[in-house]
Amino acid sequence: MKVPFVNLGLQYKNYKTKIIKAFDRISSEGNYILGKDLLKFEKDFAKFCGTRYAIGLGNGSDAISFSLLSLNIGKGDEVIIPANSFVATAWTVANTGAKIVYADVNNDLNIDPISVKKLITKKTKAIIPVHLTGKICDIDELIYIAKQNKIHLIEDSAQSVGAEYKNKKSGSFGITGCFSLHPLKNLHVHGDGGILTTNDKNIYEYINKIRNHGLKNRDECEFWGYNSRLDNIQAAIARIKLKSINKINNRFRKIARMYNNELKTYFEVPIDDDNRKSIFHRYIIKYSKRDKLKKYLQKKGIETKINYPIPLHKQEASRTTNFKKKSLKNTEQLSKKILSLPIYYEMTDKQVEYVIWQIKNYFKKH
Ligand SMILES: Cc1ncc(COP(=O)(O)O)c(C=O)c1O
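# pyridoxal-5'-phosphate complex -> structure
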């Protein structure tokens, strides 16, 4: 049996009729940019997250960049981010001119508030917690730290559409929530895309302009901006999929439960506590001989990945971001043990059982 890491082609089949219909309608109208499909998706997404506003963007990275710019963060400022994340959490900070300050992570791979506390200085302007793998961070503690120190929380919600903590959704805790609609995310479009949530009217108005060249109307430019709009066709696709996001996330959660029940005797598995509802964008186990297991599973037709093998502070690019080199023990240790197993909506129970069976076989031999 073959178990790929994801299967986007299969997902298309499920939505094909609706997507083609939307494509045909929008193409016939010729209304591709900043049209009513985008407005509708933004309205639906804000409602889904429980925020006042949502703004569709070209990608999730721009959601972070524009959040930082909207808060006037730049040269001379410091921004704390977890050292275990995708590179976009880092370069968006570096490109504003602000200094990246890397915090260590907890065993659940999310930013450690104790590490954050130690890193706050007079120059700290924001913390960017990443709800990695679709699990909400220790957000109560982070909100408390941010309030105490009068700094902003920008949620990197790229991997966590629909994830909850105490019945509140990802993207509704910080000054902004930054979502990616990249094809590998639970809610995704057919190319690049992103969306930002906020309750702040001023930020909403600023980002509405910055994503559209800085224009305040067709002819008048208030400030130099960017071209980063979620186009109408992508917004229509996202809106179609948003309607089934709970079903999609529940399938991820069911697969995670199947894995957890069978694999918890072999290694540490990701378990939610009572208040959290993770969406398992990634299902990550920890195992000291993970490279060996990875190779074994590859031979059995099972594709796995490592999210992420190189911590951000160890990336070559970090040399140029005036970062004081220091060791982040948990992040570095975890990066050597983590392994992401296949998990996606279209994965069948048979495929999940096959992965479990092969892992059990591996342990019989090792
Ligand atoms: C944690 C995290 N932050 C930011 C991003 C950037 O999103 P995008 O690729 O849509 O720019 C991603 C995904 O790629 C991500 O996983």
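# post-check
Residues 59-61, 85-86, 88-89, 130, 156, 158-159, 180, 182, 192, 194 surround pyridoxal-5'-phosphate (CB under 6 Å).
Residues 245-365 form a domain with the Aspartate Aminotransferase, domain 1 fold (CATH 3.90.1150.10).
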